[in-house]
Amino acid sequence: MGQDNYLFVIAFLIVHANISMSFFTCGPDLKCSCTTRPSGAIAMDCKARNVKLRQVCENIAQIYPNVSDLNIARNNIGSINAKDMNHCRNISSLNMNYNQISSLRSGVLKDFRNILTLDLSENVLDIFNNTAFDPSVLPSSLRILKLYGNFREDSKLERSFAYPNFTKLRNLAMLQMDGIETDFGLEYENSSVKNLTLSSQGPLGFCSIKEIFPTTFHSLANIRVLDISSCRIENIYRDAFKHMKCLEILDLSLNRRLGFSSLKNITYSLQFTNIQFVNYSRVYTSFGVGTIILNRDICYLRNTSLKAVAFDGNNIEMIEKNTNLLLPKHLETIYGQENTFTFGLYLFQFGCLENVLHIHANNQNKMHSPIKYFAEPTSKNDNDRNRDSECPFMTEESLKSIAKDIHDCTYFPAKETVAEMKPQFSRSLKSIYFSGCNLVYSIDNTDINISPSNNTIEVLDFSKNAFHSLSGRIGPFPNLKFLSLSRSYCSFISSEILSMVKLENLQLDQNYLGEMFAHQGRGDTFEYLTHLKTLNLSTNRITRLHKNIFSRLKNVENIDLSSKNIEMFDVHVTSLKNLLHLNLQGNTVHKLNHKTRQLLEDNSMRIGKNFTLDLRNNSIEYSCSNQQFLYWLLDHKERLQGFHEMVFYRLNGSSVDSTAFLREVPHLRAQCRSYTVAIVLSALGVLSACAIIIAVILYKKRWKLRYWYYMTKQNYFGYRRLVNDYKDDDYRYDAFISYSDHDLHFIRDEIIPRLENRGMKLCVHQRDFLPGIPITDNIVDAIRTSNKTVVILSKTFVKKQWCIFEFNMARMESIDKRLCENGCLVIVLYENVPAKEIPLEVMDWIDNHSYIRYTRDPDGQPLFWESLTTAIEH
Ligand SMILES: *[C@@H]1O[C@H](CO)[C@@H](O)[C@H](O)[C@H]1NC(C)=O
Ligand SMILES: *[C@@H]1O[C@H](CO)[C@@H](O)[C@H](O)[C@H]1NC(C)=O
Ligand SMILES: *[C@@H]1O[C@H](CO)[C@@H](O)[C@H](O)[C@H]1NC(C)=O
Ligand SMILES: *[C@@H]1O[C@H](CO)[C@@H](O)[C@H](O)[C@H]1NC(C)=O
Ligand SMILES: *[C@@H]1O[C@H](CO)[C@@H](O)[C@H](O)[C@H]1NC(C)=O
Ligand SMILES: *[C@@H]1O[C@H](CO)[C@@H](O)[C@H](O)[C@H]1NC(C)=O
Ligand SMILES: *[C@@H]1O[C@H](CO)[C@@H](O)[C@H](O)[C@H]1NC(C)=O
Ligand SMILES: *[C@@H]1O[C@H](CO)[C@@H](O)[C@H](O)[C@H]1NC(C)=O
Ligand SMILES: *[C@@H]1O[C@H](CO)[C@@H](O)[C@H](O)[C@H]1NC(C)=O
Q1: Higher-pLDDT residue of 270, 160
Q2: What are 56-106's pLDDT values in tens digits?
Q3: 563-575, pLDDT tens digit by residue?
Q4: Is 65 in the pocket of ligand 1 (CB under 6 A)?
Q5: Which DSSP state fits 643?
Q6: Between 759 and 509, whose confidence is greater?
Q7: Kindly report the CA angle at 359 between 357 and 362, in degrees rounded to 5?
Q8: What's the 137 CA to ligand 3 centre distance in angstroms?
Q9: Is the CB of 745 under 6 A from ligand 2?
């Protein structure tokens, strides 16, 4: 084996080892799955694999001593022996969730010196019976302990309960447990717990604590996060949280019976904490009479470090005037979603929210599903609660001084009524979420001035309202970056409304703007948005777009036109030097033009990022005429979003899925080539057949055509002199003699003297043709101005072109024009001409008409002259 081969084998082993080590099957009968952490420790997942604890631990001891995490949840373990666990004692994290465990004997976890996390949730441990459950069996190294879901409500007999004494767990930082009502509360010394969750959120947790006394959480001096959501709390005493100096997050949500009367007590005790966020959502019933927030409820918050507060889903209708002034100075985020806010003076005091950055107020007046009424505990009706408070911040002087310090803040005195007001935003505000609030507005050529004009608002989400038509001007919003007016029943929006020069993301999806785009003369809707990066026009019933609609969007990267009705995407794109993502999903596009394709490729190359194109659910034509585009798609299939869902359509309507497409497109060119050849050949065939037919017709009618030609020529360009010289019954000549020069002597010696002696006037070309005029014109003229044309048929006559020409012209004249009794053409057979030498048309004439045979026999001659004279004269 050469050195190269060795290297190859080693490389292979390394690669193979890496792959197989990061994720592999393990455990008894390889029922579990293992993953290796970068540190080398292994996490073994045996959740719901129907394994025995003992087997798993033995397997770990024998094969995988570095297993540090074991998840053996949902294996119906039941009771545990110390021996079962012995071999697992080195692990640091053990999950035994949902295992029907009813007791933990002492010694079971005794030697687990490294364990940090233990999950015993959703078992049947009787943890609130101090004789049944001894917390001292738990290893003192534990940092995270999950015990929730061990209390079933139906076990609530007439007995006393007490929280376990966790004094020995000196490292415990996070505790999740069921919440019960006790006289003592959680009492154990020097608690190190930082996160405590006593919530019944989740499927099996249980929490029912009617009142929170100052003693309930007395020992939790180090707590930072307290989650007592969904605990059926009804009343909270004034000093309940006072001793929690480190408290940062307090979650009181979903205590529907709590209402707002206790809020004063809560805010009071929060003054003594390090509170950052309070979740006071859904503490009031969703149905029924709305509620009001009073100054006295939140007054003490002014003396806290609160940064964010949530009041979602509380059916709040009103905020007392000047309440906004009492919100903490450093408050940054307010959640007030799913309420029923009505108009009030508080709306004019948004300028007082000095440092507030974000207001989330989505889904006001939310409609509740009529078929899904969740039975909720009714809150106490506390709207008539006393408005008094000793809180020092809500006195008139205090409120006035707060208002004085804030630039755009107005204080409303207690008694005076307020006249005309303008809404104010605070100078720090960055985002307002006001989606789904049933706002119904049409703004028609009205100017709405936003104050202050140098506001810092960057995000405005007003989607899911109803703005039927937006024209005029709202603003200014000199810093706005994101604007959503999605699903707002909007059918008109003017370029002035959209004159937010810094806008980067505009969401206009799910409106009715298609009609406007189709009839818009100038395509200027987006003319001010030169910074725009994302434009969403999805689902707008767009059929047509003005060619210049996107021309000014020179920074746009992403255009979403997924909709239903676009048939052709042929707007001007050359200025879109940053466009990389085009979504045309669900339209009826057949192809994408060359310019757009080229633009995407060029942009991608220049910017160094891949472009993406979404053409799913379109009607892309699978045909030879579209083959260039199809080849382009094949070349860029990685750039096509959801290529495998794409379907192409043949001209006969049958579809080609992406697999068939990949298989067949490479052969398309060849197919189309033979197809082209076939088309060309059949076209040629048809053409030549036509040509032959036309040629035959032309040949057959050649004399007629020539005759017409000359007649026309003469009528329009010829010599009027000649034309006007005669009338139909008044010819200049009695006969035009057509003959071959070879027979000239016969004409000169016989025809002319004999006939002219009888008083006839003959036209003989040698004598009567006008010089300087084309011979054809002379001939046609002679025929037309002579009563009859006499053809002296001889062997040479049939060979001379001009003679045949004269014959045919005379024939045509006689067929076409004149009503000569015996034809206008008199044929004199001067000598015997062999039948095969006579041209067809002459032969044909002779067969169908009479002719006069010349005879050299002196006896016959008088008869000949007689018949000739008669033929000419009649
Ligand atoms: C636990 O780890 C120690 C070393 O850290 C090792 O000596 C011992 O064998 C391990 N025990 C088991 C049961 O894997
Ligand atoms: C507590 O547990 C012990 C031992 O399992 C049992 O004898 C006792 O009845 C329980 N106490 C209550 C009040 O259920
Ligand atoms: C909790 O246990 C510790 C010792 O483990 C003991 O000193 C303390 O009194 C107990 N607390 C209560 C309230 O029983
Ligand atoms: C305590 O809760 C906070 C917030 O929920 C979380 O970020 C933190 O990681 C938790 N601490 C522990 C030890 O789980
Ligand atoms: C507030 O705290 C006081 C004193 O601790 C207590 O009497 C009262 O019940 C608590 N609740 C309300 C709603 O006042
Ligand atoms: C503000 O809170 C502190 C505790 O952090 C408290 O000592 C002080 O009395 C409070 N101020 C007022 C005016 O209530
Ligand atoms: C407040 O609590 C509710 C209910 O538990 C929860 O849905 C919501 O996300 C919480 N709010 C925040 C901002 O965490
Ligand atoms: C456009 O809006 C639709 C929802 O109507 C959304 O699914 C899509 O992600 C949005 N596109 C962009 C580019 O923001
Ligand atoms: C696209 O077509 C697929 C399959 O025909 C269909 O399931 C899907 O709903 C369509 N999507 C859209 C946005 O029309």
Answers
A1: 270
A2: 999 999 998 889 999 999 999 998 888 888 899 899 999 999 999 998 888
A3: 888 888 889 999 9
A4: yes
A5: G
A6: 509
A7: 155
A8: 15
A9: no
**Mean pLDDT calculated for residue range 220-233:** 94
**Which one of the ligands is nearest to 647 CA?**
9
Please tell me if the CB atom of residue 174 comes closer than 6 angstroms to any atom of ligand 4: yes
- Report whether pLDDT(528) > 50: yes
Residue minimizing CA distance to atom 12 of ligand 9: 586
Burial of 252 (0-12, 13-18, 19+ CB in 10 A): buried
Rounded Cα distance, 645 and 616, in Å = 7
The two beta strands, 32-36 and 23-26, are antiparallel
State the closest ligand 6 atom to the C-alpha of 391, by its place in the atom list counted from 1: 14
Strand order in the sheet with 492-493: 440-449, 466-475, 492-493
Ligand number with the minimum distance to the CA of 538? 8
Residue 2 has pLDDT above 70, yes or no: no
Q: Is the CB of 274 under 6 A from ligand 6?
A: no
Please tell me the distance from the alpha carbon of residue 31 to that of residue 46, in angstroms, as a whole number.
Answer: 7
Ligand number, closest to the Cα atom of 117: 4
- Tell me the C-alpha distance between 232 and 635, whole Å: 62
Model confidence pLDDT, tens digit, residues 625-671 = 898 999 999 999 999 999 999 999 998 989 999 999 999 998 988 88
Under 8 Å between Cβ of 231 and 208:
yes
817 vs 485, higher pLDDT:
485
Q: Is the peptide bond before 452 cis (omega within 30 degrees of 0)?
A: yes
Ligand 9 site residues, Cβ closer than 6 angstroms? 585-586, 616-617
| Structure letter (DSSP) for residue 406 | S
Average pLDDT over residues 3-29: 60
- 3-state DSSP of 493-505: ECCCCCCCCCCCE
Confidence of residue 870 (pLDDT cuts 50, 70, 90): confident
How many CB atoms are closer than 10 A to CB 97? 20
Report helix, strand or coil for 91. coil
- pLDDT value at residue 13: 43
CB neighbourhood size of 440 (10 A) = 11
Q: What are phi and psi of 469, to 5 degrees?
A: -145, 135
Structure-token match 């005879």, residue found: 855
Could you give the CA distance from residue 422 to residue 408 in angstroms, rounded to a whole number? 11
Instruction: Give the list of residues 6+ apart from residue 833 with CB closer than 8 angstroms, or none.
Output: 793, 794, 795, 797, 798
Q: How confident is the model at residue 759 (pLDDT cuts 50, 70, 90)?
A: confident
265 lines ligand 5 (CB under 6 A): yes
Pocket around ligand 3 at a 6 A CB cut-off: 165, 167-168, 187-188
Q: What average pLDDT score do residues 461-466 get?
A: 96
In the structure, what pLDDT confidence band is assigned to residue 233 with cuts at 50, 70 and 90? Answer: very high
> How far is Cα 168 from Cα 248, in angstroms, rounded to an integer?
25
Which residue lies with its CA nearest to atom 4 of ligand 3? 167
Cα–ligand 5 centroid distance for 238 (angstroms): 6
Q: Where does residue 23 rank: exposed (0-12), middle (13-18), buried (19+ CB within 10 A)?
A: exposed
What length does the chain have?
Answer: 874
Whether residue 117 contacts residue 173, with contact meaning beta carbons closer than 8 Å, is answered with: no
State the average pLDDT over residues 772-799. Answer: 83
Q: Which ligand 2 atom sits closest to the C-alpha of 129?
A: 1
DSSP states of 339-380:
------GGGGGGGG-TT--EEE---TTPPPPTT-----PPPP
Range in 97-106, 628-637, 713-722, 796-805 with the lowest mean pLDDT: 713-722
Q: Residue 550, SS3?
A: coil
The reply to whether ligand 1 has any atom less than 6 angstroms from the CB of 61 is: yes
Ligand 1 centre to CA of 193 (Å) is: 29
